[in-house]
Each structure stands twice: as C-alpha cells, then as structure tokens.
UniProtKB/TrEMBL annotation:
<keyword id="KW-0472">Membrane</keyword>
<dbReference type="Pfam" id="PF13206">
    <property type="entry name" value="VSG_B"/>
</dbReference>
<keyword id="KW-0449">Lipoprotein</keyword>
<keyword id="KW-1003">Cell membrane</keyword>
<protein>
    <submittedName>
        <fullName>Variant surface glycoprotein</fullName>
    </submittedName>
</protein>
<dbReference type="GO" id="GO:0005886">
    <property type="term" value="C:plasma membrane"/>
</dbReference>
<feature type="domain" description="Trypanosome variant surface glycoprotein B-type N-terminal">
    <location>
        <begin position="7"/>
        <end position="258"/>
    </location>
</feature>
<keyword id="KW-0732">Signal</keyword>
<dbReference type="InterPro" id="IPR025932">
    <property type="entry name" value="Trypano_VSG_B_N_dom"/>
</dbReference>
<keyword id="KW-0336">GPI-anchor</keyword>
<keyword id="KW-0325">Glycoprotein</keyword>
<dbReference type="GO" id="GO:0098552">
    <property type="term" value="C:side of membrane"/>
</dbReference>
<comment type="function">
    <text>VSG forms a coat on the surface of the parasite. The trypanosome evades the immune response of the host by expressing a series of antigenically distinct VSGs from an estimated 1000 VSG genes.</text>
</comment>
Length: 259
C-alpha cells in the first residue's frame, strides 16, 4: 500500500481522515486555539496524547481535522462518512478504524525509514558483475578453474587446520572474507562426524574437508559450480522454490534450544 515514493499519499491520508471523523468531540477540540476557540491551533497541544505522538502526527492530524470541519466544531456538509450508523455500529467502526489507522501509520513510518537505499559500493557500481565476482571469489580476475584457497579464505589459508578454526574463529589472515568461504563452511562435507551432502547430492566423495586439515579447494569449486548461472540447469519456478523451502523446513531440527 505504501511504496517508497508513495508513503503518505491519498490512501494513507484517507485512512487517517476517516479515523479522525469518528473521534470524540473532546479530541477534536484539541485542535482549536485555546484562546480563540473558533480558530485553529497553530501549536501542538500538551495534553490528549503523548508528546512523541504529537510530534509524529501533528501535521497529519491537523490536515485531517481541517478537511472535515470548516472551523473548529463546525463540520463540513460534504463530510458525513458514518452519519447513518447506529450508536452500536459507530462504536464498532471506531475500534476498526483505530486499528487500521495505527497500522497505516506504522507502514508509512517503515516506508519512510527505508526510503533511502543504503550506501554501497555494489549498489553504486557500474560493473555489478565484477563486484559480485569479487564478493564471491575474492578476486575479479579469478575463475572457478583458477581460484585458490588464499583467494577464497585469505592469505596464509594454509594455517587453517580445521573447519572450526576457519569458520568459528578468526586467525590472523585466515578469517572468512568471501561468499564462497562462507558457503564452504556450511556446505563442504567433512571426513567424519559431520553431515555429508548437506547442500546437494553428488559432491565427489573424495572432496571432503579433513577434520584436521585446510579447506578443500576442489570442494569449494564444486559448490561454486552449483551456484553459477552457466551450470544451473533446473528452471526455477514458484513451484520449485516452494518445494525447496518445504524440504528445508522438514530438515530443520531443534535440540536443547539450538536449531
């Protein structure tokens, strides 16, 4: 309902106005000047709502009450949204409109907060493909054929002597630096005691991460190959995505508070 370029347009304003139209007269009087009751107030009241709410909503509420009344306490003849409702129906309408209005305000607030795209070299790049390659492989010049452990895991990757060392600690010059390194930590099969083929069936049995060894670069390349467009054979559809999510959900387990 609230696109980034449409945070507070007609739909939002109509909701807030409808909510204002069923408000009690005591609430509407807060928008009248305390010294000149037939004139609109020019400053926020100090009662009736929290100061934070007045700061957030003053402009919107002021606009709405003025669209409903010619002057304080004198409704416009053209604004009779719920005049045909019985008292009981009006009370129900008030509750519903209050909920809808609160939701609209929160959505508009979120939309405004997200209006600015985060500053990012990737977003601003004129060559996203190169930036993505650097993110994935660590080097824009690397390929799946030529990429080495040092490019994936950082210089001196040979000091990494186990999956725990690489993935849960940050040894000097050996911490996770690339997307492929992170994927290797999750998906590379281990020699023993860990789940095999957690990501996909068909990893070469010999391409495992030895319990006391460095990452297996061949296994990393194999995982990368499954994630690149040129080796992706299956057509992605809504059905295949849902099927994958359902499969993942069935595989998730929880033990002792850990998932």
């Amino acid at each position: 309902m609230f696109r980034r370029d449409h945070q507070k347009k007609a739909d939002y304003k109509e909701i807030i106005k409808r909510n204002m139209s069923v408000a009690d007269s005591s609430w509407k009087q807060l928008f009248a000047d305390s010294k000149t009751p037939d004139q609109w107030a020019t400053e926020k009241p100090k009662k009736g709502a929290a100061q934070a709410d007045w700061d957030k909503m003053w402009d919107d509420w002021s606009e709405d009450i003025k669209s409903l009344e010619d002057t304080p306490g004198k409704p416009k003849a053209t604004e009779k949204h719920y005049s045909q409702l019985s008292p009981a129906q009006l009370q129900l309408a008030k509750a519903e409109l209050a909920l809808i209005s609160d939701t609209a305000v929160e959505l508009a607030t979120l939309a405004q907060a997200q209006a600015q795209e985060p500053s990012s070299r990737l977003i601003k790049s004129t060559d996203i493909a190169t930036e993505m390659k650097k993110l994935f492989l660590g080097n824009a010049e690397a390929t799946l054929t030529t990429v080495a452990n040092d490019q994936i895991f950082g210089a001196s990757s040979s000091i990494i002597n186990s999956g725990d060392t690489a993935c849960t600690a940050e040894p000097a010059n050996g911490k996770i630096k690339t997307l492929l390194a992170a994927m290797s930590c999750i998906y590379q099969g281990e020699q023993s005691c860990q789940a095999e083929d957690i990501c996909f069936k068909g990893q070469t049995a010999a391409n495992v991460w030895a319990n006391g060894g460095a990452p297996n670069v061949t296994a990393a390349k194999e995982i990368a190959g499954k994630c690149t467009t040129d080796e992706h054979k299956q057509k992605t559809t809504y059905h295949t995505i849902r099927q994958a999510l359902n499969t993942i959900a069935r595989l998730v387990t929880t033990k002792s508070g850990s998932t």
